[in-house]
């Protein structure tokens, strides 16, 4: 699948410089104008979001589209801020005690919904196992350099297993992490390997989710949890941990349980869905040119 990015390293550096000099509120105000600019210029993204909003029964007019892009803009801005100064972002935790069931390792399900990248900083004062995030790294190299300059000490316990290294190597890294009682996090809502999918009912349609984390949970009997973090106000997020018991479940039923949870949250926070491609066109399973993913780094 092709990942299309709208990245602006200079803009990111300027916003972060403003933050360091002026604090949070002035650069946050500027983010609104950045969101407005991309609302006007990214018509292709609006077009692919039409399908998503039609499944929700919501009209995607210009106002709704701006709201969507604004939430996404702040998810990126706050991601950087949470790395620079995690105490700047308030995070309310729901069922966080369940997270400590992963003290001997386990599986986390993430999704391209809400401020998932901020989750790594939500447990900033806690001693937890290393978290290995399995994903296909698509951030531009120049943007990654900017991010690395903002890394905090506790993030040395957060590693990326980049799927670009190949299936065999990444599988070995995942297996080693679980054997070492570490945490492995997967992006459950996006298909990377068309051979590793599981069909679920989602927003009144059959769609494919990433099969791998559910297979691993059943085979290893490791605890599996979904983590969602949503923006509920300026500098304010809510993190919810949901324990999903894999006992006596099949891969399909476990995936459906997760899909039901995600659907419920999406209906409550529709503007915080950040899969900027037509999710309902087999999600790139056919790997054709009509199924391009838009990962819009807009700062």
Summarize the structure.
This protein is an alpha/beta fold. The chain is built from eight helices and eleven strands. It has a seven-stranded mixed sheet. A two-stranded parallel ribbon has the order 1-11.
Task: Describe this protein's structure.
The structure is a single chain. 36% of the residues are buried. The strands form three sheets. This protein has a seven-stranded mixed sheet. It has a two-stranded parallel ribbon with strand order 1-11. 39% of the residues lie in helices and 21% in strands. Helix 1 packs antiparallel against helix 2 (25-41). By secondary structure, the chain is an alpha/beta fold. The radius of gyration is 18 Å and the shape is globular. The two termini are 23 Å apart. It has one domain.
Provide the descriptors you would attach to this structure in a database record.
alpha/beta; seven-stranded mixed beta sheet; two-stranded parallel ribbon; 8 helices; 39% helix; globular
Q: Strands of the largest sheet, in order across it?
A: 2-10-9-3-6-4-5
Number of H/I helices = 8
| Terminal Cα span | 23 Å
Name the beta content range.
Answer: 15-25%
The helix/strand class is: alpha/beta
Overall pLDDT metric: 82
| Low-confidence blocks of residues | 1-6, 284-299
Count of extended strands: 11
Into which percent range does the helicity of residues fall? 25-40%
Give me the strand/helix succession: EHHHHEEEHEHEEEHEEHE
Give the number of domains: 1
